[in-house]
């Protein structure tokens, strides 16, 4: 691991927090020590992060905060950031201090730390630890005063050849040998593409994380089932592997994605909506949604014969698509606790592996006697309910942002969305 001379040192991070009674408590990065009356919030929030690299080393690290973190963009913008570079075991630390810059789409907040001034160039897999400190008031349910994140940094130099790798050549290529199977000048060599820049185009993709096209000599693969699990929001991280299928080294490669498809839903990757790790945008056509990426540094670009590179991007601000009835199913039912407390329950399911929003028109008169809804006000919760014009019993309901808005195959939702107090005579059939 190469670092600027004289910058390696052990680091401890302490946090001073002040309670509403002006009593100051000093903590380490962990649960608060001691007891402060009335404080039931978190002292530390942990979250995920990604590293962005350039030719001259690590340029930035980005942490994404969930909607319920309780920290606003105003709280975090300009906050003190301590970044620590270590090896994979967390040893040999080097510290760099900077300030945070923040972007927010109203649901998620991305905290970025500019590390270009740290001069961090790694020649082995390493870890970047991030601590963002904001003033904390020890009030009940107070938001965390420290955000902790960790990300993996990949080497930026040329990937060394492993002498035990069976795919590595054991002798130099003889350019004058017409029968040498890895001679790129051999016109009969079946393993060398005749057009190294020409893309191959898979057909029929309906998944935005499947490659629409790849450059010649490259095979694209991704974890299946998908491992970029979403947590009640549309942001996600996606890792994929490109493999050199030829008999010679490739100096560069590209992969094309269709950002109009799920789970990207029309995002513009050139508008600060993605964080890239060892890849860079080569082009983006907003009219078609086609996004071309390739390696961002020499290690990522060059792939030896039979070798591969695993890279990643994180979508930190994804547009919310319109609800598509083909992607979800909605069922509603009435739950009677007694004549004075009747509730309505909704179950929403989806076969989509990615989160999708839902919306449904429901007529409550199909569940209870319509006359019982007159003069007995409904109380809605966890949904936005819009009355259907001309009907006193029908509503268009949809989940609320950051709460019940999204469903997927792994995240169905069942919850009470409305209640009322009708008294006797609410059951169907009316008057029965």
TrEMBL record:
Keywords: Glycosidase, Hydrolase. Residues 157-173, 188-208 have a biased composition (Low complexity). InterPro entries: CBM2/CBM3_carb-bd_dom_sf (IPR008965), CBM2_carb-bd_dom_sf (IPR012291). The keyword Disulfide bond does not apply. Transmembrane segments: none annotated. It comes from the Bacteria. Residues 152-208 are annotated as: Disordered. GO terms for molecular function: hydrolase activity, hydrolyzing O-glycosyl compounds; polysaccharide binding. Gene3D superfamilies: 2.60.40.290. This is CBM2 domain-containing protein. It comes from Miniimonas arenae. The lineage of its organism: Bacteria, Bacillati, Actinomycetota, Actinomycetes, Micrococcales.
């Amino acid at each position: 691991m190469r670092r600027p001379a004289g910058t390696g040192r052990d680091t401890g991070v302490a946090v001073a927090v002040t309670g509403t009674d002006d009593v100051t408590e000093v903590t380490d990065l962990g649960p608060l020590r001691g007891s402060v009356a009335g404080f039931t919030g978190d002292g530390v929030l942990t979250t995920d992060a990604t590293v962005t690299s350039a030719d001259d080393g690590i340029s930035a690290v980005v942490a994404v905060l969930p909607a319920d973190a309780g920290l606003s963009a105003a709280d975090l913008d300009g906050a003190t950031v301590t970044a620590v570079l270590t090896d994979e075991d967390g040893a040999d630390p080097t510290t760099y201090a900077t300030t945070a810059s923040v972007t927010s789409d109203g649901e998620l907040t991305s905290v970025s730390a500019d590390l270009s001034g740290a001069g961090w160039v790694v020649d082995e897999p390493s870890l970047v630890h991030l601590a963002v400190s904001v003033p904390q008031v020890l009030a009940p349910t107070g938001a965390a005063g420290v955000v902790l994140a960790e990300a993996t940094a990949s080497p930026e130099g040329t990937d060394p050849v492993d002498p035990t790798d069976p795919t590595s050549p054991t002798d130099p290529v003889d350019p004058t040998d017409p029968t040498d199977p890895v001679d790129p000048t051999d016109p009969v060599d079946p393993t060398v593409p005749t057009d190294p820049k020409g893309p191959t185009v898979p057909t029929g993709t309906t998944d935005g994380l499947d490659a629409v096209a790849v450059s010649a000599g490259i095979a694209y693969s991704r974890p299946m089932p998908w491992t970029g699990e979403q947590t009640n929001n549309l942001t996600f991280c996606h890792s994929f592997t490109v493999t050199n299928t030829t008999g010679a080294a490739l100096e560069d490669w590209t992969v094309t994605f269709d950002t109009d498809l799920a789970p990207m839903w029309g995002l513009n990757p050139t508008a600060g909506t993605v964080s890239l790790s060892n890849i860079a945008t080569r082009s983006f056509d907003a009219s078609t949604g086609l996004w071309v990426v390739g390696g961002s540094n020499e290690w990522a670009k060059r792939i030896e014969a039979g070798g591969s590179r695993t890279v990643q991007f994180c979508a930190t601000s994804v547009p919310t698509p319109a609800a598509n009835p083909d992607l979800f199913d909605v069922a509603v039912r009435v739950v009677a606790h007694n004549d004075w407390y009747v509730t309505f329950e909704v179950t929403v399911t989806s076969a989509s592996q990615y989160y999708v929003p839902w919306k449904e028109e429901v007529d409550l008169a199909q569940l209870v006697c319509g006359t019982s809804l007159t003069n007995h006000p409904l109380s809605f919760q966890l949904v936005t309910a819009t009355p259907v014009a001309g009907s006193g019993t029908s509503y268009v309901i949809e989940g609320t942002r950051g709460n019940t808005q999204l469903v997927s195959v792994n995240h169905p939702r069942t919850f009470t969305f409305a209640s009322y107090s009708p008294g006797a005579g609410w059951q169907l059939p009316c008057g029965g």
